[in-house]
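Please decode residue identities from the backbone states below.
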């Protein structure tokens, strides 16, 4: 990896996090990347205008390479894949904490500490809210999920009450 050789892995990871979020949030940019009628040189100019002042030279060279090779449609996936590799190399586990209301810093720290002690890795916590879960929390990491959502418990109760064990089966 060029980032490793130039000792810029941390900076490139920060840059790729930015690229991933911009590509994920900007519908117009996605449309430009998907459009085969827009020449790669024009796409390189757009990417340069967007990112040149915010990312390092290594990242900018890589982004230009991706666009010239007509792979810009995969830019968000490429940045996510880089982040996965970076986390793996640095012993970091991505953890998603979902709550019905915004989680305070003490809950976020508790969730990070629990996951860290379980996995023996550093934790990158992404906290999000979802009012549909009613209350409780969901904690996802390393293809595991701790589910303490009230909505899940209510769904289990609905299934149990639907069985009606007191009804005669005759």
């Amino acid at each position: 990896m060029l980032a490793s050789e130039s000792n810029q892995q941390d900076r490139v990871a920060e840059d790729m996090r930015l690229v991933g979020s911009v590509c994920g949030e900007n519908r117009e940019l996605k449309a430009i990347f998907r459009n085969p009628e827009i020449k790669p040189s024009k796409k390189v100019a757009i990417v340069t205008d967007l990112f040149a002042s915010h990312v390092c030279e290594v990242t900018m060279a890589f982004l230009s390479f991706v666009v010239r090779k007509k792979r810009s449609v995969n830019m968000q996936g490429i940045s996510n894949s880089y982040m996965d590799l970076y986390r793996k190399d640095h012993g970091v586990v991505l953890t998603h904490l979902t709550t019905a209301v915004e989680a305070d810093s003490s809950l976020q720290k508790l969730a990070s500490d629990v996951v860290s002690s379980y996995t023996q890795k550093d934790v990158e916590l992404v906290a999000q809210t979802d009012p549909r879960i009613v209350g409780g929390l969901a904690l996802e990491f390393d293809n595991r999920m701790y589910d303490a959502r009230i909505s899940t418990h209510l769904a289990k109760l609905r299934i149990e009450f639907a069985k009606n064990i007191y009804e005669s089966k005759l």
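Observation: The longest strand covers residues 92-99.
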